[in-house]
Amino acid sequence: MKFLDEYREGAPVALLAREIRRIIHRPWTIMEICGGQTHTILKSGLEDLLPPQVTLVHGPGCPVCVTPIELIDKAVEVAARPEAILCSFGDMLRVPGSTRSLLDSKAAGGDIRIVYSPLDALQVARDNPHRQVVFFAVGFETTAPANAMSVWQAAREGLQNFSLLVAHVLVPPAIEAILSAPNCRVQAFLAPGHVCTVMGFHEYEPLAQRYHVPIVVTGFEPLDLLEGIRLAVAQLEDGRAVVENQYSRAVTRAGNQPAQQRVAEIFEVANRQWRGIGEIPSSGLRLRPAYRRFDAEERFGLRAAGARESADCIAGLVLQGLKKPIECPAFGVQCTPERPLGAPMVSSEGACAAYYHFGRRPHAGA
Amino acid sequence: MCLAVPGKIVDILADPDPALRRATVDFGGVRKEVSLAFTPEAAIGDYVLVHVGFALNVVDPVEAQKIFEYLKQMDDLAEIQEGPA
Amino acid sequence: MLELNFTCPIPLPASDHILLAHGGGGTLMNQLIERVFLPAFSNPALNARHDGAILTIGNARLAFTTDSYVVQPLVFPGGNIGDLAVNGTVNDLAMCGARPLYLSAGFILEEGLAIETLRLVVESMRQAASSAGVSLVTGDTKVVDKGKADGIFINTAGIGVIEHALAIGPQSVCPGDAVIVSGDLGAHGISILSVREGLQFDAPIVSDTASLWAPVRALLAAGLEIHCLRDLTRGGLASTLNEIATARGVGIRIRESDLPVEEAVRGACEILGLDPLYVANEGRFAIFLPAAQAAQALAILSAFPVCRRAALAGEVTAADPGLVVLASRIGGNRVVDMLSGEQLPRIC
C-alpha cells in the first residue's frame, strides 16, 4: 500500500537507527503523545533498534485511557434505556466504568453497536426513527471534525433522534500539564501527527519556547518514529528547543482550515476531567449553545451519581510517564487485560496493556 | 490517537454542497466511501489520509519523498566515510 | 501551577456472567474451558485438548469431534453457515490425521426463519459433504421462539478413521520443527466484517471455507512425519500458535515478512485497526513437522488451490517456552500474546 509500506522497510529504518547511535552522547527521555505511535513502537519492536540512552515514555495519547469514568457511566446509563441505541468506536467497549463496561452492558442486553464512523451512527438514526441514537463522541482533535459534521448533518436534516455524548479532549493543554508537573522528566515530545494534520502545529510553538523542550510533529510508521526521534535527539544534543515537522507529507503549520472551521462552528472549548490525572482547564470540547439540543447528557438528564475512583491503580502516574506499568504493584496481578483496574490496561495502546502484551522480552540472542 | 490510513481516490461523487462531497477511496483493493468535506481540493488519483470516514488531507508526494532522499544522502556519505568495502 | 490528582478507577469485578468474549477463542474462552468444563469432564482424551478426541475401539483408531456454528450474518461472501458447519467439523477430523467419514447435524431454528434460507443452507451442506467425501447420517431439529437463535444455529459432530501410525497432536511438537501456514491469513474474518452493519466496505475478499482433508491426506500419503496439525479459526494464527506453545511448553518464532496476507485483507485491517494475526480464518491450517521436510510439504500443498499461498512462517524453539515471538519487518522483536477477548475495530 502506497504511502504506508515504504515507511515500514527494514533497510531505511536501520540507517536511521545507526544515525541516532552516531549523534547521541547523553541519555534523553522522550515522550510520544499518541496512542497510535505507542502501538507502532511496541508492535514493531522499535525499541530494540534504539540505543540504550534513549528512554521512550508513553504519554496520555489515548482517548480511551483518559475518558472520565463519569462519561463511561453515563454511556452505560444511556445504553440501558430500551429506547436508546448507543453507537461507539470499538476502542471504548472494554473500558471499566464504576461498576461495568459497555461490553458488560451489551452482555446484559443493551443495544450497543460498534461503528467505524459517526456517519454510520447517523445512518442508524435514519434507519431507526423511533429509537434514540446516541453516539459516544470520544477522541482528540483528529476526530472532532468528523463528530462536528455528524451534528451539522443531523441539524440540517432535522433529525430528532440523534445526539452526542461528548468526551473530546485537546492535546496542547495535556502537554502543558505534564510539563508543569513538579517531577516532570520528559525532555522532548513527539507530537501526534494526525492531531496536527487537523490543527497544524503553531499551538506547540509557545510550549517549546516557554518550557525549552523540543517538540517534533511525528507520523505513525516505524520510519516516521525513528526520524522523529532522530530530530528530537539532534535538538537535545544541540541544546535547541523548537517545533519541527517530521510528518510534512500530512501536516502543515496552519493545519486543515475547513476542518477547524467546522469544529469551531459546532463545539467550544471547555474544562475537562482526564481520567487518572484530574481536571485540566480548557482541555476539552463541548457543544455550543446553538447545538446543545444534540447533547445526550442534557437530552437524557444523565447524572452518573457515585462515580468512584480508588487508589490502587496508578494510571495517572503511568499516563504522565512518571512510572512504568511494571512498577505498579497491581500490574499483571490484580490488573490484567481480562480484568483491568484502569483504562491503560484496556486500550490496545494503553501503556499497561502494551507492556503486558508486548513488553515481555524474548531472551537476548533468540 | 488516531488511525488515519492513506488511500487513493478512484471516483468522486459530486454534490452542490461541498460539505456533502464524497469519494470512493481504494485501500489496497478495499473500497470505502469517504467524505471529502475537509479536502475540497482533492481530485481523482490523489491519495488522502482517511480517519473515521473523512479525508483529513491530501498526501503531499513531494514531502513524502524527502526522507528517502535524505536517507540516500546519508547512505552515500556513510559509504564514502567507511571507504571501499 | 496545576494541581494534579492521581486517582484511579475502581476494580472491575471479575465477570460472573458469560460475555461475548468468552466465545472469542482467546484467553477468556480458555479460562472458561479450564475453570468450568475440564474439571467436570476430565479424561485423557479430553485433556489432550486437541481439535478432536482420538479413541481406540477394538483395532480401530477413531477421531471424534463436535463444533457449533453461530455465525452472523448467515450468508457472507464466499459461503454460508452451512458450508462452515460441514467443513469445520471435517477439518477438525483432518487435523487429527483422520479420514472424515460420517457427520451428524443438529439444527436449532428460530421461529420466523424463511424456509428458502434453510434450503440454501442445507444445499450448501450437501455440496460441502459431497466434496469432502462424508455422509450426513443422523440429525435433529428444534425450533425456538423468535429472538432466541439468530436465524439458525447448527451443531455438527463427526467421526473419522485414523489409517496411519503417527501421533498427531501438540504433544508431538519439538524444538526445531518448522511451522507452515497453509495459505493467506484473515480472508474469512474480513469477508464477514465487510457485510456487518456499521463497518461495511467493498472488498474483493471471499471466505475460503473448504475441506482440508485432501491436502492433509496428500501430506500423510507422502510419508511425511507430521507432528501436529491445527486449523486456524477464531482468534487467528496468533491464538492457535499460543495454544500450541502453551500446551507443549515450547517457544514459537515467526517472521512478519513471511506471513502471507492478501493486499485487500491488509487494506481492510489497516482501516479498521485490526491485526491480521488475530483475524478469523476458514480453510487454513498450521503444520508442525521436522524442518528438513518443510520444502517437500510446501511442494505437496502447492497442488491444492486452497493452499496456493502456503508458506514457511517460522520455527519451534526451546527458548522462550510458552511464548510466541514475532520478528518484525524492521528487525525488532515482540511477543504475540493470546488475544484477550474479541479483537475490536479501533480508531486510536
Question: What would you say this structure looks like, in words?
Answer:
The complex is a heterotrimer of chains A (366), B (85) and C (348). Chain A is 37% helix and 18% strand. Chain A has 366 residues and is of the alpha/beta class. In chain A, helix 6 runs parallel beside helix 7. The longest helix of chain A is centred in the middle third of the chain and has 17 residues, at 222-238. In chain B, a hairpin with an 8-residue loop joins strand 1 and strand 2 (22-27). In chain B, strands 3-2-1-4-5 form a 5-stranded antiparallel β-sheet, with no helix packed on it. Chain B starts with a strand and ends with a helix. Chain C has helices at residues 27-41, 44-47, 81-94, 115-132, 187-193, 213-221, 236-248, 263-272, 294-301; strands spanning 8-9, 53-57, 60-69, 75-76, 79-80, 98-110, 135-144, 152-162, 177-181, 228-231, 251-255, 285-290, 311-317, 324-327, 333-335. With 348 residues, chain C is an alpha+beta fold. Chains in contact: A-B, A-C, B-C. At the A-C interface, helix 1, helix 2, helix 5, helix 8 and strand 11 of A face strand 1, helix 1, helix 8, strand 14 and strand 15 of C. Strand 12 (309-310) of chain A pairs antiparallel with strand 1 (8-9) of chain C, so a sheet runs across the interface.
Overall, the morphology of chain B is elongated
- Rg value of chain B: 18 Å
The major pleated sheet of chain B works out as: 5 strands, antiparallel
Order of helices and strands of chain C: EHHEEEEHEHEEEHHEHEHEHEEE
Structural class by sheet pairing and helices of chain C: alpha+beta
- Number of DSSP helices of chain B? 1
Strand content of chain B: 35-45%
Helix content of chain B: 25-40%
- DSSP summary: helix tally of chain C: 9
Order of helices and strands of chain B: EEEEEH
Distance between the termini of chain B: 44 Å
Strand content of chain C: 25-35%
> What number is the mean pLDDT of chain B?
90
Uncertain runs of chain B: none
Distance between the termini of chain C: 30 Å
**What is the spatial order of strands in the main beta sheet of chain B?**
3-2-1-4-5
